Amino acid sequence: MHELSIMHSAMEMALEQAHRAKAARICVITMRVGALSGVVPDALRFAYESLARGTMAEGSELRIQDAPAVYFCPACVRDFQAGDIFAECPACGRPSGELKAGREIELTSMEIE
Amino acid sequence: MREKRGSDQPGKHPPGAAPGPAQAGGARRRTVSVRRAVLEKNDRLAERNRGVFQSRGLVALNLLSSPGAGKTTLLQHTVKALAPRLKCGIIVGDLATDNDARRLRESGAPVVQITTGTVCHLEAEMVARAVRELPGEGLEMLIIENVGNLVCPASYDLGEDLRVVLLSVTEGEDKPLKYPPIFQAADAVILSKMDLAAPCGFDAAAARGNLNRINPRAKVFELSAKTGQGMEAWLGYLLDQRPGR
């Protein structure tokens, strides 16, 4: 259940940004969560609702964009997007050890009023 | 070195960037681009740890597994066997008790126990505090035994040079497929309790095959800390991590 502490950090970051932008209310928070981040979006949503209560983010919407795992295939000299959990290049079938993206847990943007 | 978890390199998009276009549904509503890694604070502290380890000449290892895979037993035998050649310090994380620290102290190595309370993983800041309690000189390797958990610790960089994941034969060959994030980030994977492989019907080749599909760069060791089988290769790997090797 580290999603609660991750969401806590994300919420702190969002509230700080909103204060800085002199917002009265946060309407939407958008996050990007990588396929290999180890974070479960549903658990983030659950934590979000309870953490938003009593803040200017109360009643706001959490949008989560899934970020796929992207690997580099040294044999084909190209990046590829993993369709599932496997790191295998769709062109040559070899697994790649060079992950380029997919671990991100990012606060991407917010809609504020 | 772990990859960055924000979609941008730091500094490329300063935080609190300019407001975007107004949205429909409210004249005053506006979009603010943030693009910050949620764990940036941990990542920053992990980088600081990395600097501290380097300045102290320490190679740091983050040891991960599910509870009961044999991390502590492996460490007991590892630090004891390495003691004449490589001086190790240990930081061990658990939710409660200092049982593991007491077991590990018997090996003669300095040990710092972190009790995390309800936190299911170690964070860089906890390690930064713990490392100050270890002797400042004479150590060459820092081994961090993480909280037994195959999910949460994967997200937290501690500043380590190496991530080592244990998979015990009682857990089954498909663990890498069930918990891809932690196995994907492993530099080395240890198939532990190999003395129990036959009674458990554990197929090491199948486990290696599954791991290879998730992470082909991980070095794999098959060993039993209890019988000593396979320990030499593992110890050799650790000795090779010393600076200048």
Describe the structure in your own words:
The complex is a heterodimer of chains A (113) and B (245). Chain A has 113 residues and is of the alpha+beta class. Helices cover 27% and strands 32% of the residues of chain A. Chain A has a three-stranded mixed sheet, covered by helices on one side. Chain A has a three-stranded antiparallel sheet with strand order 4-3-5, with no helix packed on it. In chain A, helix 2 (41-52) links the parallel strand 1 (26-34) and strand 2 (61-67). In chain A, helix 1 (3-20) packs across helix 2 (41-52). The longest helix of chain B is centred in the first third of the chain and has 16 residues, at 40-55. Chain B has nine helices and nine strands. Mean pLDDT of chain B is 90; it is low at 8-23. Chain B starts with 18 loop residues before the first strand and ends in a 6-residue tail after the last helix. By secondary structure, chain B is of the alpha/beta class. In chain B, helix 1 (40-55) runs parallel beside helix 4 (124-131). A seven-stranded parallel sheet of chain B has the order 5-4-6-3-7-8-9, with helices on both faces. A two-stranded antiparallel ribbon of chain B has the order 1-2. Chains A and B meet through helix 1, strand 1, strand 5 and strand 6 of A and strand 2, helix 6 and helix 8 of B. Strand 6 of chain A pairs antiparallel with strand 2 of chain B, so a sheet runs across the interface.
